[in-house]
Design a protein that fits this description.
This protein is α/β, with parallel strands linked by helices and 418 residues long. Helices cover 35% and strands 14% of the residues. The longest helix is centred in the middle third of the chain and has 26 residues, at 230-255.
Length: 418
């Protein structure tokens, strides 16, 4: 079977010939640029600057030659602009990181360094604006800078939290048409992140692409608003969903069946120990809008829908399924209640597990290569049976993961796939 045939069988809960593998097709299944470089050195590939695909998380391109070695069967289609609002697909330039690695970055990737040695990033690459993110001097990725304006309750307007959402442009439609055609031509399965469908994702709430963000932009204030301003949250989600549905109709007409799955939302609902909101709050604030988007997609396209949520979310799994999600990412193995055997047994026929192939908090960065191998083989044995599993790590592979452990993971995958 082809990569795509294996993928479609997997998503339809049929046993594929090979376990489907993903590294780099989304911004939650990626590899840090430093780790990409280490893999390229290990496998004897051409030593060239790694291309940054996600400036926020400093994820690197898994190009065709590396993807072939890793056995990747999924191709990601990313947006024309990134989280900072500058073009991610145009001309590139070299950039020297604080840790001494030379990278290729978009021309809009413009930074300064403050008195503490922290690296500052700017909305739309405009260094005359206030910075919207910071990479600590000893860090490897950017954290949002909160630029919350004073809140006046009687002047709060949901439209302020919708400034970054609007009708898709003809230029973006042309871009998506061409990008998904190229992705389809690889012969792999295709997942696209069209944007605009993430409800309350705290990666987006601060408005990193906006020069003067208005509304509720402080992450703590946003979480508090779930309790004290639910009407405001609902109004934001209602209008955002309507915009998203109109855009999805135009996108679907442009890309058609060149896409197999769509990344719908990355809002996290779990902490290490529990969910961050009650089931009743989820049902009230998120469920109706998730259901509306999923229903439209399933009624008008052949796409499967991908939901990302870290944490202890076992109790929310029935709700994600009822809301219409086909795929859950990841499986945070060391969070409370996220037992792989129980999850596969209870939900494996109704939802696809994409991720959870190895723990990225403890095992991959700190265990021995043999322990990595044992965990990968054990989890593949649990999740792969009867389809419904795409191998990826629990989250992005971080900068300082030992190359020996990454290689042990890859070799275990090959051992499992035979």
């Amino acid at each position: 079977m082809s990569f795509r045939e294996d993928f479609l069988n997997t998503l339809n809960h049929k046993q594929p010939d090979r376990m489907v593998i993903d590294f780099g097709s989304t911004n939650v299944t990626g590899i840090h640029v430093k780790a990409v470089e280490n893999l390229r050195i290990h496998y004897g590939l051409e030593q060239k600057p790694v291309l940054v695909t996600d400036p926020s998380q400093m994820l690197g391109e898994v190009d065709q030659e590396l993807a072939e070695i890793l056995g990747v069967g999924v191709k990601g289609a990313f947006g024309r602009k990134n989280a900072f609002g500058f073009d991610n697909t145009g001309p590139v330039k070299e950039y020297l990181t604080p840790w001494g690695q030379t990278l290729l970055v978009p021309e809009g990737f413009c930074t300064t360094t403050d008195a503490q040695g922290d690296v500052l990033m700017y909305p739309e690459g405009d260094v005359s604006a206030n910075p919207s993110a910071k990479m600590p001097r000893s860090g490897y990725f950017f954290d949002s800078i909160i630029r919350q304006q004073p809140i006046e309750e009687d002047k709060l307007d949901p439209a302020d939290n919708l400034e970054e959402y609007g009708p898709i442009s003809d230029a973006d439609l042309d871009y998506w048409r061409e990008t998904t055609q190229k992705a389809r031509a690889t012969g792999k399965a295709v997942i696209a992140g069209f944007g605009g469908t993430a409800l309350g994702d705290i990666a987006h709430i601060p408005g990193k692409k906006l020069k003067h963000p208005k509304g509720i932009r402080d992450i703590t204030e946003w979480y508090l608003s779930i309790l004290i301003r639910p009407g405001y949250i609902k109004a934001v989600f209602e209008q955002q969903t309507e915009i998203a549905l109109e855009n999805l109709a135009r996108i679907a007409a442009a890309v058609g069946d060149n896409v197999d799955a769509v990344y719908l939302c990355g809002a996290d609902f779990g902490t290490q120990e529990s969910t961050f909101c009650s089931p009743e709050q989820f049902d009230d604030l998120w469920f109706p809008y998730y259901r509306k988007m999923n229903d439209w997609i399933h009624s008008h396209t052949s796409w499967k829908t991908f939901k990302h949520s870290c944490g202890a979310i076992e109790s929310f799994m029935p709700r994600f399924i009822e809301a219409g999600f086909d795929i859950i990412n990841p499986v945070q193995l060391n969070a409370r209640g996220m037992d792989p055997v129980q999850l596969k047994s209870k939900y494996g026929k109704e939802i696809v597990f994409w991720g959870g192939g190895v723990d990225t908090q403890q095992t991959l960065p700190y265990a021995t290569p043999e322990k990595v191998r044992e965990e990968v083989l054990r989890l593949c044995e649990i999740f792969h049976k009867d389809g419904g599993f795409v191998f990826s790590t629990v989250h992005n592979i971080q900068a300082n993961v030992p190359v020996e452990n990454m290689v042990a993971m890859m070799e275990a995958i090959r051992e499992f796939n035979g």
